Automatic annotation (TrEMBL):
It is an enzyme of class 4 (lyase). The keyword Ion transport does not apply. It catalyses: 7-phospho-2-dehydro-3-deoxy-D-arabino-heptonate = 3-dehydroquinate + phosphate. Its EC number is 4.2.3.4. Residues 62-173 form the 3-dehydroquinate synthase N-terminal domain. It is found in: Cytoplasm. SUPFAM superfamilies: Dehydroquinate synthase-like. This is 3-dehydroquinate synthase. Residues 176-319 form the 3-dehydroquinate synthase C-terminal domain. Its cofactor is NAD(+); Co(2+). Keywords: Amino-acid biosynthesis, Aromatic amino acid biosynthesis, Cobalt, Cytoplasm, Lyase, Metal-binding, NAD, Nucleotide-binding, Zinc. The gene is aroB.
Amino acid sequence: MNPITIKDFTIYFENQGFNAINKWIKENKPSTIFVLVDDKTMENCYPYLMPMIETTATIEVIEIDHGEEYKNIDTCAGVWSALVELGCDRNSLMINLGGGVITDLGGFIASTIKRGIPFIHIPTTLLGMVDAAIGGKNGVDLGHLKNQIGVINPPIMTIIDPAFLRTLPQQHLVNGSIEMFKHGLISDRVYWKDMLHVTDYLSDTFNSLIYQSAVIKSDIVSMDPFEKGPRKALNYGHTAGHAIESFLMEHPEREAVLHGEAIAAGIVIESYLSVHYAGLSTKAYEEIKEWYTTLDFKFSFNDDEVMQMIQLMKYDKKNTNGEIKFVLLDTIGSFITNQVVSNEDIIKAFQELKI
């Protein structure tokens, strides 16, 4: 699979990525290499990575707890302090080895320590490989509000090695696949259809779909790196999905969900709205709803809870002038942005989750 280049950085696949890392290290001679991991990737992924790295530089490992609840400024402060204590300078390199929390948070930390040091993403989850580690978005949550603090700053490179997927439970593979389905919905109906036939997440065929997903996201990012126009399409399903995530984080008595699970619910909600505001056909909506039904996710919210989530949607970064703005589909494979919808229709759309 050929590398994918987006202006200032490149996405490499499998061993060609580790060759690229070693070439960069040899040419740039970093003073120290910092590897950011969580407790899960330290155990399951770090031992696989280290034999691949060729260097005489000092390697320091910084480990944090895993989970979205640690994607915050407090965690950043701890890592910043560790970096300073371990002698981080402008010639240091940070390698972020983990899922979306690690790459989001690690990219933000690297972009801000010493006013910025170079960093490399090595995503170890499917969600990271097809979404979080591509596009240069780095940041943290503010309380229960998703991704409110951050910068857009690309890594030197992102390395996608599907071998890491063998460390994941099935639930996390399904979780990451949701973003791949989203890529099909916003840009490629054939790709959407191909995803509907996936049965094995560890096959060469699925590796090719990962590659195609990376191409789709990269093409959109290259057109609009700072999310002024078409890149907003990558947030399809996320206005409602992030509100669901934030609401459930606010209410620990409710069962927590993974990011992709919330986004799948958001896709159904925003597809229903697409029928009423963007001309998506009822047949296309039923196709999307049938896919969602096969996932067997259990979401149910009363009208009062939906109103609370509508308030949370107002913090979505796509919004301007106090209006909630959705990305909607006009057909499978085509989108429109900046669509304002009524609260009444949002409430109706949430009822579609009850299956």
